[in-house]
Structures are given as structure tokens and as C-alpha cells.
């Protein structure tokens, strides 16, 4: 298979995995932070095992890299919690469409970060996306579930875009699996106090947890490009 076809296949598979995560918010009867916590602990264990098996080394290069990973992990935690919560407040479609406002944020932040010129065509495309998201809201009322879902979805999109830009800027030479292993571990650690104090009985939602396992497990043998996109 040519490199172009392989990249295209990875892109579609990554998009599928990313979209499939939206089902967690409805299938699993847990709060958004609980879903994020269990999912990231499973993903962290699998990804660290994968990195150790492939590279025989899981350490980062410097103390500064660990600090940067902490920032990325916090952004990823905010992204996932707001993403799942958006779909629980409204519905999966609203959460997914709102999330895809992240290219708009990227359009305006990337030129500033990389010191490049802003392309007017990207600006036009960005405003068209915002216009489409605007029509998702029947009325701008904070008590409306759709409005709340869009707002949380846009917050998720902003944190996702900032995290992606910082990741490519700081760790362009790092493997995707290694970067993600540290990020999901940080998210898992941040969510651990919530999981410990959660009044939810995990055994009552064991079927949903098997769904988390089932969707997290395929992340280990997939190509790095799929891991970067899906997680």
C-alpha cells in the first residue's frame, strides 16, 4: 500500500474512532468526569506498555518536557470532560458539531504561534463554521439545553485546538504514542480524586465500562497517526 493510501486510511480510521467516543456519553451511565477517568487509566496502561514494547524507553528528554506535558494533560482533561458533558447536556450531534469549531480556533492561533501570515480563505471558512454552529442554537438562552451543549462544546473545541497547537510546537519530534501516554496519564491522575469520591457504583455500570475497554483497546496497535487523531 502506498504511503498516501496508508495516510488516508489512518485519517479515516482516526476520524471514526474520534466520532465513536461520542457514544460513551449516552451508552455509559456515568458523569463526564468519571468516563474520562476510567477511559484514561485504561488508555494510559495500554499506551505505556505499547511505547515500552516498541521503544524500550518511556522517559522524556528533560524536566522542561515534563512540565510541558503537564500543561498538555490539563488541557486534554478539560477538553474531554467538556466534550462528554456537552453531549450529555444536549445530544451527540450537537457535541460533535460544536467540537469541530476547533479548526476556527486553529486558524487564528496557528499564524500567531508559527509567525506566519493569516490566510483570508481560512478566515472565511472559519466564519462559515461559526455560522453553522450558530444555527444549532434555537434561542440564546442559558437555560436551554441546546445552548448549554453548544457552549460546552465550543469550550471543548478551544482547549482541543490549543492543546494540538502546543503539542505540534513542543513535541514535533516526539512519537505520538509517547506523547499521548503521558497526557492520558496526567488526565487519569487528575481524575483519580473524583473517581475515589464518586458516589457512583462502578459495578452497576460494568457493561458501560466494557465499552470503554473495547474502544480503548484498539488504540494500542494502531499507527501513531491514528492514536494522535483518535485520542
How would you portray this structure in words?
The protein is an all-alpha fold. It has 11 helices and no strands. Helix 3 (32-55) packs antiparallel against helix 4 and helix 6 (102-114) runs antiparallel to helix 7. The radius of gyration is 18 Å and the shape is globular. The chain starts with a helix and ends with a helix. 36% of the residues are buried.
Question: What's the arrangement of secondary structure elements?
Answer:
Layout lengths: L2 H18 L3 H4 L4 H24 L7 H27 L2 H8 L2 H13 L5 H15 L10 H26 L5 H22 L8 H11 L7 H7 L1
Query: Low-confidence runs (pLDDT<50, min 5 residues)?
Result: 206-231
Which structural class do you get from the secondary structure elements?
mainly alpha
Rounded mean pLDDT is 77
Q: Strand share of the residues? A: under 5%
Helix content: over 70%
- Cα(first) to Cα(last) distance is 25 Å
Short description:
The chain has 231 residues and is mainly α. The protein has helices at 3-20, 24-27, 32-55, 63-89, 92-99, 102-114, 120-134, 145-170, 176-197, 206-216, 224-230.
